[in-house]
Amino acid sequence: MPVDVPDLKPGEVDLEHFELLLNETSTSGEAVIAALRDYLVDGIDYKVATQTHGANVSQFYKRLSSIKKKHVFAAKVSKFYANV
After folding, report:
1. Where does residue 74 rank: exposed (0-12), middle (13-18), buried (19+ CB within 10 A)?
2. Any residues with CB less than 8 A from the CB of 77 and at least 6 apart, and which?
3. Distances (CA, A) of 31 to 17, 38, 41, 44, 63
4. Of 84, 43, 37, 44, whose CA–CA distance to 63 is shortest?
5. Distances in Å between the alpha carbon of 3 and those of 6, 34, 45, 46, 82?
6. What whole-number distance in Å separates Cα of residue 8 and Cα of residue 40?
7. Which pLDDT band holds residue 84 (cuts at 50, 70, 90)?
8. Residues 6+ away with beta carbon under 8 Å from 29
9. Sign of torsion over alpha carbons 60, 61, 62, 67
10. Radius of gyration (Cα) for the chain, nearest Å?
11. Which end of the chain is more exposed for a tag (fewer CB within 10 A), N or C?
12. Is 66 within 8 Å of 29 (Cβ atoms)?
């Protein structure tokens, strides 16, 4: 049975949630991390966030995609931990 997973909405991601998802990726560039945090946690437009931190837009989107995949995976497996 498929699990309906809501998308990560810019400005609506809790900082702890962001950090946990980020820890499960290979993202290490400080500029990209800062831009992703501004975008997902603070709701700042991606163009502003990447320009402010000097992050490469292509890398920003690659890492955003990776975070979103981890989010979907975590949501799908969470049903197995509901009673833990």
Report:
1. middle
2. none
3. 19, 11, 15, 14, 12
4. 37
5. 10, 30, 29, 28, 14
6. 7
7. low
8. 55, 59, 63
9. positive
10. 13
11. N
12. no
What amino acid occupies position 31?
A
Map residue 67 onto helix, strand or coil: helix
pTM: 0.89
Quickly state the pLDDT bin for 3 (edges 50, 70, 90).
low
Two tokens, residue 35: 């831009």
What does the block give as tokens for 20?
């946990």
Q: Would you say 28 and 63 are in contact if contact means Cβ atoms under 8 Å apart? A: no
Instruction: State which amino acid sits at residue 2.
Output: P
Question: In the structure encoding, which two tokens stand for residue 23, read together?
Answer: 């820890």
